[in-house]
Structures
1.
Amino acid sequence: MQRDCIYGRNSLTRRAALTGINFAVAETGEFVVCTNEGNADMGAHLADVHIACMGIEKLVPLKKHLGVFLRLLTRSATGQPITTYSSHFKKPRPGKEMHIVLVDNGRSVHLGRKEFRNSLKCIRCAACFNTCPVYRRSGGHSYHTAVAGPIGSILAPNLDREKYGDLPFASTLCGSCSNVCPVKIDIHEQLYKWRQVLVQSGHAPLAKKAAMKTMTWVLSNPSVYHGAGKMGRWFMLNAPFTVNNGMNPWYKQRDMPPVPKQSFGEWYKKNKK
Ligand code: SF4
C-alpha cells in the first residue's frame, strides 16, 4: 500500500528533481529558486539528482544585485516583502548530484533584435498580466503559449511567427503593462513593433490583412466612410439579424449597443449655431 501513497516513503526519495532557476549570481556561482510553497525545495532536498534549468538571461553580476531583484520580484508579483522560500544552491549535497541546464530556446536570437532585446530583462513577476485588460478577461490559456500575458505576446512570436503571430494583436496598447513593469520593459511599444514586423514579413492573419485593407480604403475616402456608416445604421435598425448572428464573434457573448438614428456628423450639422 505504501508504494502507491503519495506521502509514502518511496515518493519522498525520488531519484531526480527538476526545478527552474529565478536568478544565478556570476560572482558566487550560486543560483536561487523562489517558491511560496517550498515545492522546489522539497524536491531538490529529497532527490539524489537535482536538475536545475535556467534561461540564460537569469544571470545577475554580483550578490548585491540579487537582493534588489528578489525584492522586485515578490513586491511586483504578490505584494509580499520577500518570497516565502528563496533557496540558494551552490553545490550538490554530499553523495548527491546537481546539474544545471542552460536554456537558450530562441533567447540569443531575441538578444540580436535591437527593438526586442529589452524584453529579456523580464523576471516573470506577472505584474503586467494582472494589470492587462485583455489578460484579466481572457485568462492564461487563451494565449496558447507557456508564458501568457503581455510579455508572452512579445516572447512567443520570436519562437514561431506562424503559430504566435496573432498574439501582439491581442492588446489594447493601453500601456498599463509598461507602466507597472518593475524592470521597465517597454512592453506596449514592443507589441506595436511586433505588429509591424509581422505584417511586413507576411505573418499577419489573412482576415486581418483583408480587414485592414478595407478599412484603409473606407477611412481615406470621406464619401465611402459616410456611406458605410449610413448603410451600417440602416441594417442594424431594419435587419439586425445580418449583424447579430453567430458569425459575429462580438455578438456571441455580448449585446450589441443600441443604434443611433443619425451619425455624430449629421447631428452636429443640424445643431451647430
Ligand atoms: S514584463 Fe515586467 S511586469 Fe511583465 S512579468 Fe516581466 S518583469 Fe513582470
2.
Amino acid sequence: MPERPDLEYVVPILAAELRGRTIQGVRVKKPVVLRVAVEGKLETLLQGKKIGAVARRAHFVRFALGDLDLVVSPMLAGRFALAPAGDKSPADLAVAFALDDGRELRYRDDVQMGKVYLIARGDDEKVPGLAHIGLDILDAKVFTREAFRALAAKRRDQVKVFLMDKTALDAMGNAYADEVLWEARLHPKTFVKSLEPAEVDRLHGAIVKVIGQATRTILARKPPLDEKLRDFLKVRGKHGEPCPRCGAKLRSAGVHGHDAEFCPECQPATRRSGIVDWKQSP
Ligand SMILES: [Zn+2]
C-alpha cells in the first residue's frame, strides 16, 4: 500500500490541486471498492459537491465534501492520479471523479483490495479502523521516547505486528515495518514484552530515522503521483539478495499472517522470538 512516506508526499499535492474544485460526475469501473454509508444514489450524492480539506489519517485519505466525507483506504495497490477527463482510462481504474476544471481525480487499484467510503461528515465509526488511530510517528512532540516506552509496555504481541497496528502507531505497513526492524537489528518475531529498555529505545530511534528519511527522500525526488518510490529500501522486496550491512542472504518469514523480510545475521532469532515463547512455556 502507499505507506506514510508516500502519503506525506501525495496528500498535500491532492489538497493543493483539489481544494475548491467541484465534483461534476462520477464513473465507477470497479464497484467492489465502494462502500456507501449514506442513503441515496452515489452520483446524486456527489454531484455539485465542493472539495474542502484533503487530509491523511494513518493510511486513510479523507476528502471533505461539505456534509459528506469521502474516505479512501488504498491498501496494497491503490493509487491516485489527476488526469484530463478525456484521457484513456487505465485498466486498473476503479473510480473517477470528474472535476469542474476538466480533469478527473482517479482512484486506481489493480487488485481492488482498497476501499472508497462515502460517509456522513465525521461518521468515522462507519470506516473500519478510522475512528481509533495511534501516535503520530512523525510528530516529535507526540512520538517521544517516553510515549513509545509506555505503548510498548502494554504489548503482548510480536514486534512486527505491533509496528503495523494503526491503533497504536500512525502509521507503518509491511514494507516500512521491515525497514525499521532491520535498522533496529531486531528479529520481526521478537515478542515486544521481552525487549530490553535499550532495545525499545533503539526501535523508537529506528522508526524516527527510517520513516523520516524515507519521507524526505520522496519529497525531494518528487515521483509521479501514482508511482510508489521504493528503490532506496534496504530489505523490503530483496529476499535472497545480500544484506546491505553484513552481506548475509536476506530471508523472509511469516509473522501473524504478514510476510517479513529480514537479515538472519543482523536480526538474529533469539529465545525471545519464534512461534514458541520460551519464557512463557513451562
Ligand atoms: Zn545483515
3.
Amino acid sequence: MAPIERARTASLLVLCPALIVLALALVGAQTAPAWLEPYREPASRILAAATSNTDAWQRLAELTDTFGNRLSGSPQLEAAIRWAAAEMKADGFDNVHTEPAMVPHWVRGDERADIVQPIPQSLAMLGLGNSVGTPPGGVQAETLVVKSFDDLQQHKDEAAGRIVVFNVPFTNYGETVVYRSDGPSQAARAGAVAMLLRSVGPPGLRTPHTGALRYGDDAPKIPAAAISTEDADQLQRMQDRGTRVTVRLVMGAQMLPDVESANVVADLTGRERPEEVVVIGGHSDSWDVGRGAMDDGGGCIVTWEALRVLKRLNLRPRRTIRLVLFVNEENGTRGGMAYRDRHTAELANHVLMLESDSGVFRPLGFGFSGSDAARAIVNQVATLLRPIGADRVGQGGGGTDIGPAVQAGKLPAMALEVDGTRYFLIHHTPADTVDKLDPADMARCVAAIAVMTYVVADMPERLPAGGDGK
Ligand SMILES: [Zn+2]
C-alpha cells in the first residue's frame, strides 16, 4: 500500500471505531477455525497457571545443584535418572518407568595444555569428548595454525609431527562444528600428532567449549582438545609474527566399556485414545563440565513441568502425552535409538514428537516438520500463544533425541524455539549453570509447550500424519 493510501485508510478507521471492530471480527472469523474455539479457555488457564510461578527454574536449580553435570556413564547421571523417576511417580503420572539403553563411557581424566616455547604459558582448554588420551608425559610439538580445511591442505607439508590448531571463527554451529567433529582425523591424515581447536562458539571470557569428535576409520586417532578463542587468537598472532611456538598437551582421556543407563518415561494417559501418543522431552545427560543447566537440564524440566501443569489443572487430553528424558544425546544418541527400537510397533500411533534442546530462554514458538495440512493446524494452535509472544511456527522441527523415531516413523516433529542469542556463549562450557536462565522465560517455555501439546493431544481430529523424516 502506498503511504498516502495507508494514511487515508488509517484516518477512515480512526473515524469509525465500529469499522475496526467489524474488520477484526471478520479477520478472526476467517482465520480461526471453529474447532479451535473450545481451546481458548483452557489455553488461557494453562498460560496463567504456568506463568504464575518459578517452579521450572527452582526444579532445574535443584537438579543441577544436587547432581551436577551428567555425562553418560557417570554416577551423577544415574543418580539424576533415579531421582527423576521417583519424582515423576510422586507427581502422580501414569506408567512411570525407565527403559534401558547401553551408553558409551568416556572419561576425561586430568588434562592441560601449555605453551612451553618461547616462554611457558598455560592455555584454557577442554579435551574433546571421545578423544583418546596422550601418553602420560603428554605430546609436545610445534604448532601449525590453520584457518580452514583448505588452509590445512595448502600447508600439508608442514603438518607432519606438529600440533595442528584449527583457528576457525564461529559463524553458526552447523558450519563451524565440522572442525570439532572432523578436524582431528583431517589433521591426523596430514601427519599431525595432536589437534587443538578454536572453541565452537563466540568469544566469551576465555572459556573453552567441549563437544564430541568423530574419528574417521582411515586415520590414526590423535588426541584433540578445544582452546578458548582468545588463546587461539594468541597462537595465530604469534605464528603471523614468525614466532615458533611449542605446545605440550597432556590428556588422561579414555573410553571405557559401555554401561547400562536408561530413558525415563512417564505418561499422562489419554482419556479416549490412550494408544495415540504425543511425546515431549529433552535429554538427561550433559557434558562433564558446568552443570548441564541449559543443555539440556532445562529442556527436561520445561517439558516435565508442562505435563505437571496439565495434571494440576485436571486437563486430561483425549490422547496420551508422554514425557521422555532421553539419555546420551551428547556422545552417542543411544537413548533416542533405544526409544525407536523399543517402540517400533507403536510408531504409527505417535501423533507428534517434540524436543526442547535449544535452550530455555525467551520462547518464540516452535520449529515444525510435517505435512502442509499438519502445519496449517499447528499454525492455528500457535495463535493461542500470542499472549506470551511464542506464536511463531518455523521450519526445522527436528531434535537429536527424537530423530531416530521421527525418521523411522516419518512422524511430525517439533522443537521449542527460543531467543538463542546467548546459547552458544555457554554451550558445552563450565559456564552452563542455572543462573544464566531467567525464571520468567522458563515459565513461558513451560506454558508454550503445555498449550501446544495439550491442544494437539486433545483435538477431535488427529494431527495429519507424515513427516519429512527430518
Ligand atoms: Zn543438548
